[in-house]
Specification:
The protein has three domains: 30 residues; 71 residues, no CATH class; 134 residues, Cupredoxins -  blue copper proteins (Immunoglobulin-like), CATH 2.60.40. The chain has 291 residues and is of the alpha+beta class. It has four helices and ten strands. The longest helix is centred in the N-terminal third of the chain and has 35 residues. The protein starts with a helix and ends in a 16-residue tail after the last helix. α2 packs antiparallel against α3. A hairpin with a 2-residue loop joins β1 and β2. The C terminus is likely disordered.
């Protein structure tokens, strides 16, 4: 026999579960039409859209996706669905006891070859422009070197004699407003509205340095230096993660970039020159061989 209290508790749980489930479904539905609900400098629960753009490159990527790719994808999906429904109804067995034996139609075959080619050209032209702009690095105001290790990131400011490692903060050590799996002990600090050039490499296996808000993603390859750039337009803290499977702790090497005003950056720089000063090797007996 079922206890009355147990029966009431089951009913109560169902009453709570159904509204919460409906709320999540509605949130997902409206996020398609109001993408700002899902925008942030870091991933949030039930997010479907991109993170909030903080650079011109990312704004162009979002515009390319929302204004060109999505309409094309939706139009193709609706058209294919219409063809499927039309074929199911028009050519059903009851309406066609003697089915057609036609196997070729030159006009249709030409159309279904040319139209996809034209669609690809329409997509390719603006995408190539965006890719070229990302690869053409303007004159940098600041250069940073990011080195991927198993499983953390190391950073250098070559022009400032600064070097430090950046480890994820364990969940038990998190402070207020520090996101789980994204906060680090030593953040990369850059000034706002300055061109930052990032040299990216790895020490052991393949990694990838990615910051969604800046529209940046580059592979970190051992023995090779890739480069990218960004120009942050808003002060704030931005989060990313390693985007290349690199081993058992791949999910635990986040990237945190703190964008500050130029005055605050100078203050941080003066402190970092002492705290993270790179140790230079001094050896008077060391000689460089000449050809």
């Amino acid at each position: 026999m079922i206890n009355c209290r147990e029966n009431r508790s089951v009913i109560f749980i169902k009453e709570l579960y159904i509204p919460n489930k409906m709320k999540n479904i509605l949130f997902i539905f409206f996020s398609f039409f109001v993408p700002n609900l899902a925008l942030a400098n870091q991933p949030i629960d039930w997010q479907l859209g991109f993170q909030k753009a903080a650079s011109e490159s990312m704004r162009e990527i979002v515009a390319f996706h929302d204004k060109l790719l999505l309409p094309i994808i939706i139009a193709i999906s609706v058209f294919v669905l219409f063809l499927m429904l039309y074929a199911c109804v028009r050519f059903r067995a009851s309406a066609n006891p003697n089915p057609s034996k036609r196997t070729h139609n030159v006009a249709v075959e030409v159309l279904w070859t040319l139209i996809p080619c034209l669609i690809l050209i329409v997509i390719a032209v603006p995408s190539f422009k965006i890719l070229y702009k990302q690869d053409a690095i303007p004159k940098a105001d600041l250069t940073i070197k990011a080195i991927g290790y198993q499983w953390y990131w190391g950073y250098e400011y070559p022009d400032e004699n600064i070097i430090f490692d950046s480890y994820m903060i364990e969940e038990k050590d998190l402070k207020a407003n520090q996101p789980r799996l994204l906060a680090v002990d030593n953040e990369v600090v850059v000034p706002v509205n300055k061109v930052v050039k990032v040299l990216i490499t790895a020490n052991d296996v393949l990694h990838a340095w990615a910051l969604p808000s800046f529209g940046v993603k580059r592979d970190a390859v051992p023995g090779r230096i890739n480069e990218t750039w960004f120009k942050a337009e808003k002060v704030g803290t931005y989060y990313g993660q390693c985007s290349e499977l690199c081993g058992i702790k791949h999910a635990f090497m986040p990237i945190t970039v703190k964008v500050v005003s130029e005055d605050d950056y100078e203050i941080w720089l003066s402190e970092a020159r002492e705290k993270f000063a790179k140790e230079e090797i001094k050896n008077e007996k060391l000689q460089i061989a000449k050809k």
